[in-house]
Structure formats: C-alpha cells, structure tokens
Amino acid sequence: MGAKPKAQTVGFRYSFDIHGGIAKAIDGLLAIRASGKTAWSGNATSSQTIHINEPNLFGGDKGEGGIQGQFDLMMGDESQALNTRLATALGNNLVPNFRGFAGFFYSGLVTSINPYPKPWELLRYRRMNGWDGSVWYPETCAIDLLDGQVRAMNPAHILYEVYTNRENGLGVDRSMLDDNAFRAAALTLYNEGFGLCISWKRSAGSLADFRDQICDHIGAYCGPDRNTGLITLKLIRDDYNVEDLPLFDEDSGLLSIEEDETSSTLIAPSQLYVEYTDAVSGETRRARAVNQALAQLHGGPSAETVNYPGIPTADLAARVVQRDMRVRASNLRKYKVRLDRRGAGIGAADPFRIRSLKRGINEVVVRAGRIEDGTVGAGAITITALQDVFGLPATPFIKVPPSGYVPPDRTPQPIALRRLMEVPYRELAGLIDPANLALVDVSAAWLSSVAAKPSGLSLSYNLTTRPGSSGAFVDRDSADWCPTAQLVSALSINATTATLTGGIDIERVTLGQAALLNDEIVRVDAIDLVSGAITLGRGCADTVPVQHAAGARIWFYDGFEGADETEYSSGVTMQARLLTNTSIGQLDPSLAGTDSLALIGRQGRPYPPAQLTIGGSSWPSSIEGDVVLAWAHRDRLGQADQLIDTTLGSIGPEAGTTYSCRLLRADTSAVLDSETGISGTTATLTTTYEGQIIAEVWSVRGGVESWQRQRWQFNHTNPPPP
Q1: Are residues 541 and 586 in contact, defined by beta-carbon separation less than 8 angstroms?
Q2: Which domain of life is it from (predicted)?
Q3: Tens-place pLDDT, residues 688-718
Q4: Staple partner for 271: which of 303, 474, 601, 615, CB 3.0–4.6 Å?
Q5: Residue 184 exposed, middle or buried by CB count within 10 Å (0-12, 13-18, 19+)
Q6: Mean pLDDT of 98-127
Q7: Which region among 95-109, 167-181, 261-275 has the lowest average model confidence (pLDDT)?
Q8: Residues linked to residue 422 through DSSP beta bridges, in sequence order
Q9: Helices 155-164 and 207-218 meet at what angle, rounded to 10?
Q10: Is the separation of the CB atoms in 268 and 329 below 8 Å?
Q11: Is 512 left (phi over 0), alpha (psi -120 to 50) or beta?
Q12: Over the range 490-501, which residues count as b (16 or more CB within 10 Å of their CB) and which as e?
C-alpha cells in the first residue's frame, strides 16, 4: 500500500515448440496428461488442432504454471498436408509432411517458475488403423471394456500382426498362418472380454519376446503346427470333452513314462499378486489371490508377484490371478512320456490322456510341452507334458478391493466468508516511512480484503480488482487466509469480554493485534483457544465502540489482509473478486463472487473523539435537563500505527481539528440542538423535547469529517418546574 514499489521479476513463463511422434498409427487420442493431471480429454480420431487451455494446471503463476497452447494432432495418413506452423518453427526449408506415423506439434506454455517441464502422457489407442493391408477379422478386433472407457485390442489380432506386418512385424505372408485356428482363438478371446492394452517398442526386446509376452497374458501357444507347418494359435482352456481326447497307454502307443514328478506345495505362494496397468488412470495396480491352506501349511504368508502390463482392468486381472493361483496350488504332476508314431499328431499345447496301470496312473489329462522327435532308426517321440489345469475362469470370484483411499478434493472452491475494507491510516503508518506518508493526499484511498479458507487444501487467494463496474479485473497478488470467528452472544457498547465460536485459523491470532468486528477496530488483549474467551480493547484507530449482535463476525486481519497497492481517489467505487489457489490451480473467475466498496478517503479523515460521557456518565439510559457532552482528543498523526482504545485519555488533537455535536429525535432524526467549531472537549446542548433522543459527536478538519461518530441513544426528560 502507499507508493507502489517497482515491479520485480519473480520468475518466468516457459513456452516451448514441441514436435513429437506418438506411434506408427493410432485410431484416436483420448487424453493429454502431465504429471498425473489432465490437460485435455476427448476422442480425436482425425488430424486436428486441439486448443489446450489449462494455464493453472500446476498452480498457475503462483505455482508451476500449466499448459496453454495449440496441439496439432497429425495422424500421418497419405493425404496429410504440411503443417505450416511446424514448417515455420523448422525454418521453412524443405520441411516434409511427416506422413507415415502419428505425431503432434505443440506450441505454447508448458511451465512457469520451474524451468523443467512436467513429463507428458498421451492416452491413445489403435485397433483398426496401421494394418498392413485390410484389417483381419475386423468383427472381433475391438474389445471395449468398462462400458467403453477402455478401448482394448484382441490379443489374437496383436499376434496376427506380429507375424504378418511387413513394416513392424515379421512380414510373414498371411497364407502361412492357420486362419481357422486364429479365428477360433480370436472369437474365444472376444467372448471372454480378454482385450489387452499394450505396445511394442524396438528398444524393449525382439518380436519373439513380445509374442511370448502376449501368450503369457492370455495362456496360449503361438508358433508352427507340427502337422500343417502353418503358424497356429492355441488357447490353453478347459474347452474340450475328455472322452474325445486321444488316450495313450501300453496298448495304444505309450512306450514308457521316463519321469513322473510332482510339484511341491512348499514352494507355492499362499498369496499371488498380478500387477497390471489401469488403462484409465495409467497407474500400476494389483490384483491378489489368497490360499489360506497354503498359508497354514507354510506357517505364515508367502507371496509372489507376476507382471502382466497389458491387462487393462481390475476385473480381467482378478480372473488372471485366479487362473495363475490355481496352477501354482494344484500340485501338478509333470511327465516325460515316450510314444510310438501314433503320437505324431500331438502338437505343442495339445491336450491328451495317458494311462499306465502298472505305474498306478489310472487316467490323467496332460498338455504337451516340449516335443522331441526320434531318429530314423528309433522313431519314438518324447513329450514333456504337464497335468492340465490351465483354463481361464469365465468370471472372477476374487474381487479387486478398492484401496479405501479417497483422494482429497483439491478443486479450488469459491470463497464464502470474505469482505472488503478501505485501508485505515493506521495500516499506512505501519508500512510507509513518515516522510513519504506526509506526502500522501488526504483524498487518496486504497483497498484491502480479508477472507477465510473455503477448504482445508486452499493455499491462498489472489485479490483481483477493477475501478467501476466494467473492464478487466487486474491481479493484485496473492494473500493469506485471515483468522476469523463469531460472537456467541451480543456484545454491549462498553463490554470488553466475549466468547467466540466457529473459529477458523484462530490459533494464528496473537496478542496486541488488530481485529475488525463488523466496522469497529478492536485490539486483542487476551484469548483462550480452548474456551473461546477473548478480551478486547474497544474503539481503536478511526472507529468508535458500538453494540454487536450475537453471531457478529470478527476478522483478525492484522497481517492477514490482501491489498491493492494502487492509489485511488475518494469517490471511486471498487469491485473485487477473490480467487482461491490450491495445488492444482486457481478458481475460475466466473465462479467467484463480485464485491463492491465505495472509497471515501478514509486514511485522510480525522479520528473521531473517544471516551464519550453524557451528563458525566458513560452510556447513560436517561438524562434530565441540559445534555452535557464530554470527550477525549484523538490524533491520527500522533497515534500512527498504535492501537489506542476508547478508554484512554486525550491524545492530540491533530492540528486544525474541531468537533461538532448535535441532538436528534430518535423517531424522526429531526435536529433538536447542535454546535460546531468546538476546539475543546466539552459542549452543552439543550432541548425541551421529552423522549428518546440521540447524541452525536464527531471530528472535523479542513471540512473533512471523521469516518465514524460517537453516538448514543437515551431517554430525555425536562427538570420539574421550580
């Protein structure tokens, strides 16, 4: 307040031009995020310009800025035109159209204060675009989960592309794939709702590694078929009729069982965790399966974690962890069997039956694993097989429990408890040196504000103002929240103790500080935070004591007010909006209330008189005969920034100050008697009117009156006749 200091640079806004690639192809862009916060969301399925307008995403200029600019999505199709803004940024010299991949060009704000931009995330999906030729079996390619929130792809189609895509895959001709087997697997996965959200990067490993990762997710074999030579896809499911499976025993091709091993439950975990990536939030989460019997066997819990990054939903993760737990806890038997040439039709992952009565094996369904063909001289086929329990449950009996954590609401809320105040002289005297303070014109005025936090996560607020009722609001800097409370009961004009309720931040109140009770400035002499009891010095600075109703609000504003340091003139009406700041941004100005205050040049007005007595008494209920008024001087300049209450004796007066007083009828406000130009501290007014009257006393200096007046109502009677 006062003379406005020279503006200082406290930080910078950082704007970047960013050209980036997203993927070889995408179907659409769903969201643009940075540091876990969403800058834009929608479903952009074609090349277009996205206008991002989140300048307060990371706290605005009071935090770490936000994102505000134009995001040009370039889908990379064959007809993609030259991006002129990108060409300008690159110098306009032989700039290509950047076809053949999905990319973007962003130009605009990326951060403030902190020169290090937040990491960006682009939530995109691809199912139909980017195929090498037509989309294979398009009816089952797209698998939507969570009511369409997750746009997953059929794993069979992912594997099909691994083999057939000539640019990003192995480039195998489609005729080399067993189309019937792939279609059957694709239909099963589609009906199971087993869609994956996963991408392959050359830096992450080979295509063979990626293929095996997909097979681990879905429980499948993908590779050459021993009988047809074609690439096949077999899902490991309990989708067969046991009686229809080939049976091998000593009479039907079983030559021997060379190994017969049983897995130990001692190494099986009692708790199995599946880590997956939530496709909506991008967070890594867990699904858990528990086997209490194993925990009792082990004498306590044991755990194992399996990572399936392509699983996009909790429901699917629960089904997969149930599948994997069943495998680990089943005491599976592993066999190494030798078959004669009648076993030549068994392929990898095929189920079949074995029986050996002389080894005590009645009949067991197994899955073929490793297959070793014999030689010309010895045609036996050796198959390493595992007891089959690998089916995927249709529905989970394991529910992924919610975390129980409800993130706090950091959304900036409108400020309900707030008020404006014209800055008193006492505040200026504490901020401006005496030499410069003496140069301030008496008609100058400044605006301040106080506000209580609307929520526990509200950090501060920004005071924005404008003179009049039109034009843009100007940001006048941030301010702290002001401690505040309410009176439990009414406070009389001469009471100095009260009880507070509904306190907000009152633990920040200090003794001796100024507070605003309605329009009366008071001094805090004592406060008990437990009981709410408070002792006040009344009628300080340029105010006088008045009565206050129960529920009246007190603002402990000293050091907690916001200020517009622009100097205005008396008579200007100011409008203000207070904008809440939180860790995620600032309140939208359209949501903030607009407050108005007419400025009166308060700081330049003389202080009102203090210590009023009427007929020798303070605040009498009745007076008989002449009304004798007495008061004490107050001196604006002499008191400076001190909080002098109304009970102290005379100080001053300020040079050129006189006093005026009058009597009014309480019912009509008609003037009964008055006196002006009084230089002393007493006056006698007379009236013959009997009834309720009001006495007023105020200060005048150079034609300027004090902002407030000493005022008291009492009953007047005439003395009895002699």
Answers
A1: no
A2: Bacteria
A3: 999 999 999 999 999 999 999 999 999 999 9
A4: 303
A5: middle
A6: 93
A7: 261-275
A8: 447
A9: 160
A10: yes
A11: left
A12: ebebeebebebe
The alpha carbon torsion through 637, 640, 646, 647 (nearest 10 deg) reads -100
Residue pair 169/162 in contact (Cβ under 8 Å)? The answer is yes
The whole-model pTM stands at 0.65
Cis geometry, peptide bond prior to residue 609 (ω within 30 degrees of 0): no
> Which region holds residue 250: left if phi is over 0, alpha if psi is between -120 and 50, else beta?
alpha
**pLDDT tens for residues 334-380?**
889 999 989 989 999 999 999 988 887 888 889 998 999 877 677 89
**Domain ranges within the chain, ordered by starting residue:** 13-125, 138-235, 239-263+332-389, 264-330, 418-604, 610-717
Higher pLDDT, 269 or 653: 653
Q: Are 581 and 402 in contact (CB under 8 A)?
A: no
Do the strands 271-277 and 303-307 form a parallel or antiparallel pair, or are they unpaired?
Answer: parallel
Torsion of CA 93, 98, 99, 102, to 10 degrees: -170
Q: Please, what is the angle between helix 155-164 and helix 179-192, to 10°?
A: 150
Q: Is 617 left (phi over 0), alpha (psi -120 to 50) or beta?
A: beta
CA 320 to chain centre: 33
First-to-last C-alpha distance (Å) of the chain: 62
Q: How many residues does the chain have?
A: 722
C-alpha to C-alpha distance for 272 and 331, rounded to whole angstroms:
16
Look-up of token digits 């003794």? 511
- Structure tokens belonging to residue 167: 């640019």
Whether the Cβ atoms of residue 337 and residue 254 lie closer than 8 Å to each other: yes
pLDDT at position 391 is 55
Amino acid code (one letter) for 358: K
Residue with tokens 């000493």: 710
Can you read off the two tokens belonging to residue 26? 């995408």
Considering only residues 6 and 434, tell me which one the structure prediction assigns the higher pLDDT.
434
How much is the average pLDDT of 408-435?
Answer: 92
**CATH code for residues 610-717:** 2.60.40.10
Number of helices (H) and strands (E) in the chain: give both, helices first: 9, 43
Q: Is 608 helix (H, G, I), strand (E, B) or coil?
A: coil
- Whole-number pLDDT of residue 61: 80
Sheet holding 418-422, edge to edge: 418-422, 444-451, 562-569
Q: Are 699 and 609 in contact (CB under 8 A)?
A: yes
Rounded CA separation 559/483 (Å): 10
